[in-house]
Amino acid sequence: NETLNEISEWLQKGRAPKVKAAVTKALEEGIPASEILEDGLLAGMDIIGQKFKNNEVFVPEVLVAARAMNRGVEILRPYLVEDGVETKGTVILGTVKGDMHDIGKNLVRMMMEGKGLEVIDIGVDVPTESFLDAAREHNAKLICCSALLTTTMGEMKNVVDAVKASEMNGKVKIMIGGAPITQTFCEQIGADCYTPDAASAAEAALKFCE
Length: 210
Ligand code: B1M
Prior knowledge:
Blueprint: H1 2-13, H2 16-28, H3 33-53, H4 59-80, E1 90-95, H5 103-114, E2 118-121, H6 128-138, E3 142-146, H7 155-164, E4 173-177, H8 183-189, E5 193-194, H9 198-209
Parallel strand pairs: 1-2, 1-3, 3-4, 4-5
The protein binds CO-5-methoxybenzimidazolylcobamide.
CO-5-methoxybenzimidazolylcobamide binds at residues 45, 48-49, 52-53, 59, 62-63, 66, 98-105, 107-108, 144-146, 148-151, 175-180, 195, 197-198, 201.
Domain B12-binding N-terminal: 1-88
Organism: Butyricicoccus intestinisimiae
Keywords: Cobalt, Metal-binding
């Protein structure tokens, strides 16, 4: 589809206003929001990811592409998230300490909100203690940690250990995810659950909150 290609192209160029316009156009053409996300925005981000890996583009280009991605996703939000769903539980979500990647986390948030969960998004570069403090403050049943770097995924073990050493042991569960994370890693660090994508993260979170 031409409009979806346009979205991908503008995203790769990091042109947020153009991405927003093309996403709006795609919606007007009746393309489902999930398709715009997968075959437009994420397709473009995939290409940037490949080029980044091959040293064909660098951090500044990836950063503007990521910004454009987040702007595009914002337009899709109302179409991906159902309105007026009753709150089914509260979840704490953040990207671990040392890690600034937030696109995956933002998608996870959106899908969770779509399932009627209240998501307390505590951002990126989140220290261990902040996950615990937020869980206490909001009486959450689930802490969700995202990491995109092999150098930061170890932070997830700190969160697991801190919860186990606290009064919340057994009361708060921990879900982990992000590109380098695997089921094996989840078992190694003693987290409660690993999910590979935003949709399964939302489904699993709902189960923990029931
Ligand atoms: Co960075 N980066 N980056 N980057 N970046 C990667 C991750 C990398 C794989 C690129 C590469 O070399 N191929 C590589 C990591 C290598 C490694 O660790 N083995 C890398 C690197 C090295 C770096 C820097 C160190 C580069 C540098 O400075 N030299 C640096 C680190 C900064 C830091 O965090 N301290 C850096 C910086 C950046 C930018 C700031 C430029 C930018 C981030 C902007 C932003 O997020 N606002 C960026 C980006 C965009 C990427 C790539 C290109 C794309 C990541 C992304 O958003 N993907 C990435 C390459 C790639 O992945 N192909 C790369 C789309 C997103 C939807 O996918 O986040 O995986 P993802 O989320 C998925 C699932 O993983 C899952 O759901 C989502 C989809 O459904 N998921 C969860 C995510 N979190 C979950 C949590 C859950 C459950 C599921 O439960 C809690």
